[in-house]
Amino acid sequence: MDRTTRSSALFGILTRQKALPFIIIMLVGMLFTKTGFYTPYNLLDMLNSSSILLILSFGVTLTIIAGGCDLSIGGILVVSGVLSIKLQSVMPMWPAIFCAIVFGVVVGFVNGFLVVHQRTEAFIITLGMGLLLTGVAQQLTDAHPLPSSNPDFMMIGNGYLLGVPNLVIITIVCFIIFAWLMRYTQFGRNLYAIGGDYEVARYSGINVIRTKWLAFVISGGTAALAGFLLSSKLNTGSAIYGDLTALVVNCGVVVGGTSFAGGIGGIPQSALGLLAFGMLDNVMNMLNITSYYQILLKGTVIVAIIWLDCFAQKRKRELV
Amino acid sequence: MSPAEKTGALKSAAGFLRSYLLIVLIAVLVVLTAIVEPKFLSGQNMINIMRQFGPLIMVALGMTFVIIGGFIDLSVAGIINLVAVVTISLIQVLGQVPALIVGMALGAACGALNSVVILSSGALTQAEALFMTFGMSTVYSAFALLYSHGSTMHFWDIDKSKSVFEAIGAGKVGPVSVSFLIFLFFLALLWIFQANTTEGRSIRLTGGNKTAAELAGIRIRRSIVVIYTICGFMAGVGAIVLFSRITTAAPVIGANFETNAILSVVVGGTTLKGGKGSVLRTVTGVLLIILMSNCLNLLGVSSYLQVVAKGAILVFAIWLDNRKQA
Amino acid sequence: AKVKAAFVVSNQANESQAFSAKEFLRLGAKYGFEVSTFDAKGDTQVESQIVTNCIAQKFKVIFLNPNDIHAIVPAIMKAKQAGLVVGMFSSDLVGADQKYRDFASSSDDVLGGQLAAQQMIKQFPNGAKIVEIGGQAGHNAQLSRHDGFNGDKGIKGSKIQVLDFKACQQWATDQAQAIMEDFIVKYGKDIQGVFVHWDNGATGVIQAAKAAGLKNIFIIGVDGNKAGYVQVKSGDQAVSIAQDFTAMVDKSLSLAKDVLAGKKVQGYNVIPQVIYDKTTVSKYSTPEW
Amino acid sequence: MSVMSESDLIISIRDVSKSFPGVKALDKVSIDVRRGTVHGIVGENGAGKSTLMKILSGVYQKDSGTIVFDGQTIEHTTALESMHRGLAIIYQELNLVSTMSVGENVFLGRFKEMKGMRGTHAKARELLDSIGCKVSTGKLVSEISVSTKQMVEIAKALSFKSKLIIMDEPSSSLTAEEMAQLVKIIHQLRSQGISIIYISHKLDEIFEFCDTVTVMRDGHVIDTMPTSEVTRNDMITKMVGRTIENEYPPRPAKVGGTLMEVRGINTRKLKDISFKLREGEILGLVGLVGAGRTEIVRAIFGADKAKGHEVLLGGKKALIRNPRDAKRAGLGLIPEDRKLQGLVLTFSVESNISMASMDRFSRFGFIRRSLERGIGERQVKALSVKTPSVKVPVVNLSGGNQQKCIVGRWLEIAPKIFIMDEPTKGIDVGAKYEIYLLMKRIAEDGGAIILISSELPEVLNMSNRVLTIFEGRLTGEFDPATTPVDTIMASALGMPGVSA
Ligand SMILES: Nc1ncnc2c1ncn2[C@@H]1O[C@H](COP(=O)(O)OP(=O)(O)OP(=O)(O)O)[C@@H](O)[C@H]1O
Ligand SMILES: Nc1ncnc2c1ncn2[C@@H]1O[C@H](COP(=O)(O)OP(=O)(O)OP(=O)(O)O)[C@@H](O)[C@H]1O
Ligand SMILES: [Mg+2]
Ligand SMILES: [Mg+2]
User: At B78, phi and psi to the nearest 5?
Assistant: First the structure.
């Protein structure tokens, strides 16, 4: 690629990426406040707090880029969290975790079957699936929180490696893997092609069904991974941890600049979108904004960013 | 029977099952429950079902239009929160009839605001509307919390007469509950609107193919304003029916209504792709959802298993319906 | 200078917690605290984020009313490590976890359930058929009240028979009402009493009973908020197990002051619950929440 | 042909048939292509050329017949399989993912083979350079011109080490320079022993570099012969199968005063478009795909945002901000994409016909069904739309009948000015003729028509006057009855030296 296209690509990211300017505004704004925002502890804590949602978003991004979406992640999150603890009563920790993740993969497989193979509407079918799984989690736990008694398990989500929280490290590793997957592998590029134009991808000899299906499987597996990590972080599994998660994550992905229509976006964008949410929460708490105004501000930010994004696209369409 | 005839018969049986799936499901549920728990058929229970129909059906009727028009509205939960706390507090200030009117107008205004936000940004896809209304829902909920300071308002806090609301909540005309009559009224109104007016047709055409509709001179922007306004208005009506029924209003009263409304519309057979569907179908969708909890409660199924069963039936119904259309 | 203290509530859209937050702000100054309140908005994940955020903000004291007493433990451990004074509010950690908090100031939800059971037994010494309607499935208060009510010091061993129990998906009045309506269909006049986990839920139960023309159902709720107070006063509700959040806040603040001053304090501090019933209710003033 | 041995043939098609609902697209078609030759296929629109090619490449499945490719009998194939077998195709409809870069599109689905992004772009660069296309490989396809897209498509087909390359009208939107490049490429390929099936409506090209030519008509092969042994006239007769006079009705005779005047349309693509339309006239717009014809009419109709231009109707300025204004001002538009812009496919014939004239069958905003039924049935009858009833979904109708529904929609409100963008696209000959008669009738009733068509003969034979457009500019105005075709085409290709 020549240099001009590279710099224009950078410019494109800056103009398309509405979460980034927003993050910059917050970062600059916080310079002028007397809070503990700019302490290593807080910055790491912010990343740590966003980690679960970030990991979830990576999987979801795959399905959205392929032209679908996954609203069942909330359900997968809680069931896998519960399983990873519950199964420890009958097997050692790592096999239990493995089974929990396999569960997510299986749900992803079913989602993929329904959405890709049976051509149902991803939005509604995964919404129903999420509801179903929440019920499963309640059934599994009798709606009680299920604390883990294994300190090793808790350390996965709460430990540090060289002063960096494990979760942050895992998130960064996931980020690198997913970003690499989407940018540098056949599979990732095929997903872009499928989301960009399903028929063209098909005519070009891409195995569209298998590829898109796999996106759902990965999303399910990622959600299960996040679920086990969340359970470890909270040292507890429960059916109520995932209620709003699916919408928040999908929304964060879109705020980051991944198009719900498919084919456009990427892992870095999603990361920025969810980081923007995480940072907003952190900043609002730092500034001691009271609860109801926090809710108001968050809603406004979501509307504003998506509004600006749509408006920019409209302007581009209508450019005369 | 020859193998060909056999498969033919099987096919047509499957075809029948698909086209009338919802009715079949409802029938099975009803028969099963009636056998296990004969009290299901009691007059008391019929009245219960009528009442429980109340709030959700109002919201779902409004949502039907948004979905027929090819869009979606996640903000109804927020609208319900806001309308409920504002209306109940206004009874004290303005008296009940003005409060009722302001409440419904507020719902419609929130809906109209949604459409303005959507149209002004140029967002013309369902996905964009999805997340924008998600944000708007949060905004409305925040206003509800700010307005009420997070506290619950009760009927007994109100010195003025609230007979109208009491009637909406618990009144009966003969054996029929008032809220059911209100539902019938809006159903008739909206059904006529949907089936017999030019605007109803424009909405369907907009949902069927925005570009074609616009090129044929149909005012799609107006249709978009209309669908969101109806949806907001009906969410407002739903809020009023809801708080009248329980005689209190909390700023979180509308939680989960958006999901349930969308699910009932889609399960009823109105497709998310837009252009197709009807308020009558939504009635069957809501009926299924209401009956499901009613029957499962009567059958003594634990609340957790109920969620599983509900989710499974919904996924199944959506999948079958989708196959029918494919 | 005043000591920075944080009060973290599980959901400020819930009125008892909104009230507690108000009380913390009001009474904090009296004990030399500058209190900030934080809202987890009902989300367990957010809750633990807020705790670590409070560490970053260098709060000295943190009062916590968590969604989930298990899930908050890892965050509390971090707060403890960072040297914060941790006080549980309206809840307490269980078992070994208790070493991570300095004190708890709470009315006991298990005890609340037991008190409700005792009231029920007192009303029906010869036994009765009742139903129980739980709060939000999985919520700590719902679980404790359920356990207390049905446990050893509850109706266990008495002649009270629970016909049916069902928890709601949220603390939502309409859900309690719908469940009660279905119970009425199923059990009709057999229902002599109802234990419903919160007074606002009782509002719905009362509506359902009224609409079905059932009178003289013995309804017990928990909270003693405005709804419970009014309902008991009007006779619609028989009993409300009332929590005193003002006392709870006051106790929390004074305990925190003692801990900071190096005094040894008692770990678990029960704020007694009082019983509103037809005869006692007029002794109390209308609750503020 | 009998002297050819089997191994001489790269592909042998025997008795292949294919039906679509209501259309027999191919009827026992047999064609042989020899190795290392360029095999032309010609035939009027809808003859079945593209369908046959899509069967070869595995997009469609044949109903019957046999295909032997490179000695292998092919039964049930997929796009991927046939590519790996060595059969590449440049589809008639552009076949690129617009959200991805040029480089990636060239190697779509073969990222791994190309060893990643860098390899993809490097190899794509090489390939594009070899065909003289200078576009940056990092550009998004949505940002490049139609002719560049065509070149990218060619690059994509070349990228497979193919034994047979099918080109379905590759030249329809190429500039002269690009065309010359393409000819060079074709010669190169042939010298490497690669066979090419070349489909085109431009007979000059067929004679320039095709070794053999097959003529198709209505799903049949009429004849296959060496190009050196046929004359141009021969070929045309075989293609059309009847005398030309029958194909188009005579042009409307009486042209009156100015009905509409357009002044100064400027958009990102269009430069200062101004023209007049007269009463009783059919005005043809001629240009390559992407020249901007559609954009002109969409701007007039208020479907696109364009600023600063004026539309004068009967001498008075008309304010047209959106299609609704246009409709009220007496304009009607048949859009170029029937399925995306014209029809609501799941809706009934009746509601598709009635959708522009709702105020005619409603009172106080209420629909009166009997009136609506009347409108639907009147137009179905008037246009002889073939449909079991007005209640069937329009998606069940054949393309031509679907098109008639859109025509009927506008006829119902009788616009003075009728804009038709590709009105006969995908329509069979009989239906075409009916539409031509309709156009004539509208013009003779005092209306006027702006006609856009990619079929040059259609515009030339139907129009009283044609305007040529090249890259968003008006380049000429001609009377097609008196001007040689070459002159008009040269103007439409933006060749210097030809101007009005
Ligand atoms: N997918 C389809 N469904 C139904 N009918 C089709 C389909 N594709 C093509 N047809 C019909 O089959 C016939 C042959 O079409 P085809 O595209 O092969 O023609 P062609 O010879 O390539 O014409 P052109 O020169 O216009 O490209 C036409 O009548 C067309 O309408
Ligand atoms: N430079 C371009 N880049 C991207 N898309 C283009 C370009 N030119 C044309 N198109 C696409 O082709 C369609 C038709 O183009 P336009 O209206 O400019 O030309 P036209 O002369 O009407 O061509 P056609 O013969 O295809 O009708 C447009 O809607 C547009 O989507
Ligand atoms: Mg063709
Ligand atoms: Mg065009």
Answer: -65, -40
Number of domains in chain D: 2
Q: How far is the CA of D420 from the centre of ligand 4 (A)?
A: 10
Q: For residue D98, report the distance from its CA to the centre of ligand 4, in Å.
A: 18
Q: Give chains near C: 3+ CB pairs under 8 A.
A: A, B
Shared domain check, D60 and D207: yes
Q: Which helix (H) or strand (E) holds D66?
A: strand D64-69
Amino acid at B281: R
Q: Are residues D270 and D150 in the same domain?
A: no
ipTM: 0.87
pLDDT in tens, D173-203: 677 777 888 888 889 888 888 899 998 877 7
Q: Do D268 and D232 share a structural domain?
A: no
Which residue is associated with the tokens 């960009």?
A196
Q: DSSP states of D120-169 as a string?
A: HHHHHHHHHHHTT----TTSBGGGS-HHHHHHHHHHHHHHS--SEEEEES
Give the pair of three-digit tokens for residue B286. Answer: 């809501």
Backbone phi, psi, residue D402, to 5°: -60, -45
User: What span, in angstroms and rounded, lies between the C-alpha atoms of C45 and B214?
Assistant: 46
Of the CATH numbers 1.10.8, 3.10.10, 1.10.3470, 3.30.1330, which one belongs to the domain with range A40-319? 1.10.3470
Residue in B73, B79, B63, B232 with CA at minimum distance from that of residue B141:
B79
In total, chain B counts a number of residues equal to 326
Q: For residue range C4-28, what is the model confidence (pLDDT) as tens digits?
A: 999 999 888 888 888 999 999 999 9
Q: Using the 8-state DSSP alphabet, how is residue D249 labeled?
A: P
Asked if residue D227 and residue D197 are part of one domain, the reply reads yes
Name the residue in chain B with its Cα closest to that of A131.
B311
Contact A215, A62 (CB under 8 A): yes
pLDDT tens column, A88-124: 999 999 999 999 999 999 999 999 999 999 888 898 8
Domain that holds residue D463: 258-492
Pairwise CA distance, residues B41 & B33, whole Å: 9
pTM for this predicted structure:
0.89
pLDDT at residue D171, rounded to an integer: 77
Please answer yes or no on whether A125 and B122 come within 8 Å at the CB atom.
no
Helix (H) or strand (E) holding D260: strand D258-265
Residues D411 and D466 in one domain: yes
CA distance D150 to D154: 6
Residue D154, burial from CB neighbour count under 10 angstroms (0-12, 13-18, 19+): buried
Identify whether D476 is part of a domain. Answer: yes
Kindly list the domain boundaries of chain B, sorted by start residue: 43-254+271-277
For residue D291, tell me if it sits in a domain: yes
Say if CB A251 and CB A56 are below 8 A apart: no
Residue D71 lies in a domain: yes
Length of chain C: 289
Q: Are both D222 and D311 inside the same structural domain?
A: no
> Which of A182, A194, A200 is the best residue to mutate to test the D interface, defined by the most D CB atoms within 10 Å of its own CB?
A200
Looking at residue D60, which CATH number applies to its domain?
Answer: 3.40.50.300
Q: How confident is the model at residue D498 (pLDDT cuts 50, 70, 90)?
A: very low
Contact A161, A48 (CB under 8 A): no
Question: Which C-chain residues 131-190 have CB contacts (< 8 A) with chain A?
Answer: 136-140, 143, 167
- Ligand 2, closest atom to CA D291? 21
Which residues of chain A have a CB within 8 Å of the CB of B123? 306-307, 310, 314
Yes or no, beta carbons of C138 and A145 under 8 Å apart: yes
Among partner residues B157, B246, B252, which is closest to C207 by beta-carbon distance?
Answer: B246
Are 3 or more Cβ–Cβ pairs between D and C shorter than 8 Å? no
Q: pLDDT digit string (tens) for B134-166? A: 999 999 999 999 999 888 888 888 888 889 999
Confirm whether D246 is domain-assigned. no
Domain parsing of chain A, residue ranges: 40-319
- On whether both D262 and D236 belong to a single domain, the answer is no
